[in-house]
């Protein structure tokens, strides 16, 4: 049997088994394609397509993981052949086709189950508290997402497609398709698994060191490492492949941030920065790749509100762009992002809530770019000036930058900045994303300026540049920013609509003491003379200092203990309140669950009772023909149902009995009339039948007598014949009797012989 016939036989057998519904045996039959004797060809592709269809159907216990070995033995068959590129594309197309079909099928099934839940699903939802939508998601959408994770992890592995110059474009296209598919279906867990596989691939392909020596001089490992080094060199030399890789990384980062998968986004960003570092270390790095990478990372940092690194990446991108038309927009974005970036040294508060975690995150991100710490706003601005990016921005943006360069902004400067920002947003809609952060920056500068000048301001005056103050804007935007983000100690009086700065009074008292100290007469210094300090004086001074120090230490410990006890008491009260609230919520949930369960059980019991009433009504209708009851009767409760059914059945039986009695009476009258009509005829018939019976009896008597006479005459004839043999019979009987009887002599001889034998025995 040729290899083509063997492939055709496997395909035919699998198709027959699938038609009969035996999916597992069909998949087992197609597993024989892994043998080395089966070549790649049209029949092999058709068999792979059928294998994918069976495995992605997920019916009768067949799962997707039974299709995954096909990638391995498909690569073994195609390695070193001319069909390597085409065969890899085909198996990827087959996989993605069936994966999309699985996703569409699961989406349709979940939607149908959610919109039209079955009766058992409603009963299960009432008993367990799991909604039909959640149950449909667990039954259909979660298995489809798990299949996507398996397929993505296998396809984007290091050995499934390959990393040579021919196979890397296929790998990147496959990764793009998988990322787009996950984004379209909103598969958050699957996109994380795909990102991990993609990162592992490039860590092994570009970042892992290639060992110079191999233990045991394994020729296979040596050839593998040489092939990897050659593929790396080809990757860095090919600008198109490098740019395509950066595009896929950028697409993956944008998708992860849009789906809020920050863990996978962080690991991807770490790998991406290392890959870009390797790309830039080689000669003639592509400027387009660096621009695209920096813009993608800037988008990620903007999404997670790290404005300093957003400005850092935009500044690099604007510096690398040669096109004068495109550089203006990017440079303007970089300048505005620099204005949004905080001054790290000024913003650092050792005892601020969450400050440690913020600086730790900034330090981790800074390590990716080779920085000591997160860049401050001033350093970013100086960097833009050195790279001549600031001069390339729009004039309106440069004017706003000039207004906000000062750390403090009074009301006049703040109004000018707000007006200039409105002009920029109206003229350049692409820069509208920076409006809200810049308004917060202007408000922060204005608050700091007012805190240094006065102790109280009106809340309405904080809506700078607005023609009409809006209470809604103040409540939802300004006041939350002042309390949570500004870092300025204030006291807000909602009754009078005013804001008081808490630290202003302290500042003014310190300024008053400073002015008073300047006006006080200074005492002249004491004349220099030789001091006679004795050891006991030093000891007393030392003891006094020790006592004071211990007293201070005791006071501090006492105060700290009081603070700690107050804090613990407050935390305990807060914890008790939280636990009490949790218990109340749990009680409410339990009560709601019990009520819902009782309601579901009542509905289920009512459903069972209605079915039983239907059965009872149907049996009564079968037993009593003509009995009719309305359909609404089964919807009544048990007592009303029994009472009304009994009444209707009694009425039906009464009506039926009366009808039967009338029919019987009518039939009796009819039969009596018929008998009266038939009596004369019956008498004539009876007389005729009596004469006939009499004649028949007489004939039978005559026949009996004749037969008896014949038998008597026959017996007489037989007796006459037997009389002739009576004499001979007597003689014969006597002879027979004599033959069988012993004589007296013989008996005496026999007794004598027995006596002799007895005597001899003695």
From TrEMBL:
InterPro entries tied to this protein: EIF3A
Residue stretches in coiled coil: 551-599
Keywords assigned: Coiled coil
Keyword Coiled coil: yes
Annotated GO CC locations: eukaryotic translation initiation factor 3 complex, eIF3e; eukaryotic translation initiation factor 3 complex, eIF3m; multi-eIF complex
GO process terms (BP): formation of cytoplasmic translation initiation complex; translation reinitiation
Gene Ontology MF terms: mRNA binding; translation initiation factor activity
Source species, domain of life: Eukaryota
Protein name: Eukaryotic translation initiation factor 3 subunit a
Annotated organism of origin: Trypanosoma conorhini
């Amino acid at each position: 049997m040729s290899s083509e016939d063997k492939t055709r036989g496997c395909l035919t057998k699998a198709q027959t088994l699938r038609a009969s519904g035996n999916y597992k045996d069909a998949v087992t039959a197609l597993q024989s394609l892994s043998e080395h004797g089966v070549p790649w060809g049209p029949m092999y592709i058709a068999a792979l397509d059928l294998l994918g269809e069976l495995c992605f159907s997920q019916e009768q216990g067949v799962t997707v993981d039974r299709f995954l070995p096909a990638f391995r033995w498909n690569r073994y068959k195609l390695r070193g052949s001319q069909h390597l590129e085409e065969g890899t594309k085909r198996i990827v197309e087959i996989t993605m086709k069936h994966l999309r079909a699985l996703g569409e099928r699961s989406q349709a099934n979940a939607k149908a189950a959610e919109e039209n839940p079955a009766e058992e699903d409603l009963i299960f939802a009432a008993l367990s508290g799991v909604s039909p939508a959640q149950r449909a998601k667990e039954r259909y959408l979660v298995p489809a997402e798990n299949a996507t994770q398996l397929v993505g992890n296998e396809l984007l592995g290091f050995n499934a497609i390959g990393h040579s110059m021919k196979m890397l474009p296929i790998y990147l296209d496959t990764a793009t398709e998988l990322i787009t598919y996950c984004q379209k279906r909103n598969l958050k867990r699957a996109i994380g698994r795909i990102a991990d596989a993609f990162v592992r691939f490039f860590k092994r392909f570009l970042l892992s060191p290639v060992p110079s020596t191999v233990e045991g001089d394994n020729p296979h490992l040596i050839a593998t490492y040489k092939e990897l080094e050659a593929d790396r060199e080809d990757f860095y030399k090919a600008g198109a492949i490098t740019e395509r890789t950066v595009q896929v990384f950028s697409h993956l980062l944008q998708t992860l941030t849009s789906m809020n998968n920050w863990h996978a986004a962080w690991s991807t960003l770490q790998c991406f920065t290392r890959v870009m570092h390797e790309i830039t270390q080689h000669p003639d790095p592509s400027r387009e790749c660096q621009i695209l990478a920096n813009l993608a990372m800037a988008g990620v940092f903007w999404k997670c509100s790290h404005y300093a690194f957003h400005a850092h990446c935009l500044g690099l991108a604007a510096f690398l762009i040669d096109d004068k038309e495109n550089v203006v927009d990017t440079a303007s974005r970089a300048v505005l992002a620099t204005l949004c970036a905080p001054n790290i040294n000024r913003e650092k508060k050792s005892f601020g809530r969450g400050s440690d975690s913020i600086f730790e995150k900034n330090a981790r991100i800074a390590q990716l770019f080779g920085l000591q710490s997160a860049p401050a706003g001033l350093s970013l601005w100086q960097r833009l000036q050195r790279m001549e990016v600031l001069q390339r921005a729009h004039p309106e943006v440069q004017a706003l930058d000039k207004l906000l360069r000062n750390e403090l902004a009074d009301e006049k400067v703040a109004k000018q900045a707000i007006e200039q920002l409105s002009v920029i947003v109206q003229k350049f809609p692409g820069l509208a994303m920076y409006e809200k952060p810049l308004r917060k920056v202007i408000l922060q500068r204005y608050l700091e300026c007012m805190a240094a000048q006065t102790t109280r301001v009106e809340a309405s005056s904080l809506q700078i540049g607005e023609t009409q103050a809006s209470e809604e804007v103040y409540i939802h935007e300004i006041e939350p920013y002042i309390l949570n983000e500004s870092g300025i100690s204030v006291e807000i009086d909602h009754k009078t609509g005013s804001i008081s700065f808490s630290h202003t009074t302290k500042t003014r008292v310190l300024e008053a003491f400073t002015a008073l100290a300047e006006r006080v007469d200074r005492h002249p210094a004491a004349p220099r003379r030789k001091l006679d300090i004795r050891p006991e004086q030093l000891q007393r001074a030392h003891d006094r200092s020790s006592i004071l120090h211990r007293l201070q230490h005791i006071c501090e410990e006492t105060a700290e203990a009081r603070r700690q006890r107050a804090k613990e008491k407050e935390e305990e009260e807060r914890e008790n309140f939280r636990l009490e609230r949790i218990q109340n919520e749990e009680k409410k949930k339990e009560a709601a669950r019990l009520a819902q369960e009782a309601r579901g059980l009542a509905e289920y019991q009512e459903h069972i009772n209605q079915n039983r009433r239907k059965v009872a009504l149907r049996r009564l209708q079968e037993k009593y023909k003509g009995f009719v009851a309305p359909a609404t009767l089964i919807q009544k409760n048990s007592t009303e149902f029994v009472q009304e059914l009994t009444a209707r059945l009694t009425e039906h039986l009464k009506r039926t009995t009366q009808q039967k009695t009338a029919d019987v009476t009518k039939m009796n009258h009819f039969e009596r009339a018929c008998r009266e009509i038939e009596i004369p005829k019956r008498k004539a018939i009876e007389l005729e039948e009596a004469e006939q019976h009499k004649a028949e009896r007489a004939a039978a008597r005559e026949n009996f007598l004749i037969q008896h006479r014949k038998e008597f005459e026959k017996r007489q004839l037989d007796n006459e014949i037997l009389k002739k043999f009576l004499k001979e019979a007597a003689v014969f009987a006597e002879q027979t009797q004599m033959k069988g009887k012993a004589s007296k002599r013989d008996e005496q001889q026999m007794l004598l012989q027995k006596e002799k034998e007895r005597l001899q025995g003695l």
